Amino acid sequence: MQGGATGNLSKATFEGEECDLRDLALKESKLWAFNGNIEGYGFSINEIAIGELVVIKA
After folding, report:
1. Which terminus has fewer CB within 10 Å in the chain: N or C?
2. How does residue 38 score in pLDDT terms, banded at 50, 70 and 90?
3. Bigger pLDDT: 30 or 52?
4. Exposure b/e, 9-42, CB count within 10 A at least 16 = b
5. Cα 54 to the chain's mean position, in Å?
6. DSSP-derived 3-state class of residue 23
7. Which of 14, 20, 4 is nearest to 38 (CA)?
8. What does the pLDDT look like over 2-30, one tens digit per residue?
């Protein structure tokens, strides 16, 4: 994951176009990327129930 508090997002692809962080933040309110790609707000990686324990390994 890149961006936001980690501050390491300089560019990412959103809707097929590579954009820099300033444009993504100002025009699209996007600050986080996974593998250099940003999806729309409806995108879901996985569904997790409230109270379910999840471990993410890199």
Report:
1. C
2. confident
3. 52
4. beebebeeeebebeebeeeeebbebeeeebeeee
5. 19
6. helix
7. 14
8. 666 566 778 888 888 998 878 888 888 87
Nearest alpha-carbon partner for 58 in 26, 35, 40: 35
Residue 38 one-letter amino acid? I
What Å distances lie between residue 3 and 29, 47, 51, 53, CA to CA?
12, 22, 26, 24
Residue whose structure tokens are 């390491």: 8
Output the six-digit token pair for 46: 């996985």
pLDDT-derived band at 52, boundaries 50, 70, 90: very high
Using CA atoms, how far apart are residues 12 and 18, in angstroms rounded to an integer? Answer: 5
